[in-house]
Amino acid sequence: MGPSVRWGDTAARAGRAGRMTPAWLFPLAGALLGLVFGSFIANLVIRWPQGRSVIAGRSACDSCGATLGPGELIPVFSHLLQRGTCRSCHAPIDRRHLMIELAAAMIGATALFVSPDLNGAAGALFGWFLLALAVLDVEHFWLPDALTLPLMALGLIAAALLRPDLAEMRMIGAALGYTGLSLIGWAYRKLRGRVGLGGGDPKLLGAIGAWLGWPLLPFVLLLASLVGLGALLLRREKVTAATRVPLGALMALAAWPIWLVLQAPI
Fold this sequence. Notes:
Blueprint: H1 7-19, H2 25-47, H3 77-81, H4 95-114, H5 118-140, H6 145-162, H7 167-192, H8 200-212, H9 217-235, H10 247-263
């Protein structure tokens, strides 16, 4: 039987290979992957809430249903070349496609800029999941289990493979994030007699805890609260007990920059 290969040995060889690669290639690759993932995310957040299939069938115009050719499926560039309209019916293309593709490209580029390795690739995946969840929460107040639970599992897997020294902290983060916010929601319902917290919010905070670790969960909630308060003040919206706030989107917006800061060299 030959010698066993440990994950650490493989990661070390990948790191040596990475030092031989020009640094600018990593964020470029992240941006290109982000465009691809962004195209999928845009279709997901537009079609899924409508009950339309995201995977089955060929891509088609949202307005007239005309099947899109290969040249019309290039993220961002197709939108610009077609001046934001469908070639068949000339209806405006939903701008969410462009905005989400650009956001996903930025997430991929920044993740692999601050961490040009497997950890950065995992972080980009974290950011892309957060992007999809944030859009769904803003538009529909919906955080589907089909996204939050896999995100939590991926965070724990990434910790076990890439940062085993942080695995326990992240496991506690997943458990504490979920149970802590669930208890807050339960207490509010008991005291006020109404639901004040969606069922997806605790699962998302648990997923964030699986990626960031339990010590950073208070900072996620604090930053999310500040961002939410700032948004309400900018909109000059009167805040009442019935005001609905997409807490999941706010937590996603808070978690991503915190992950980036964690990757910065001390």
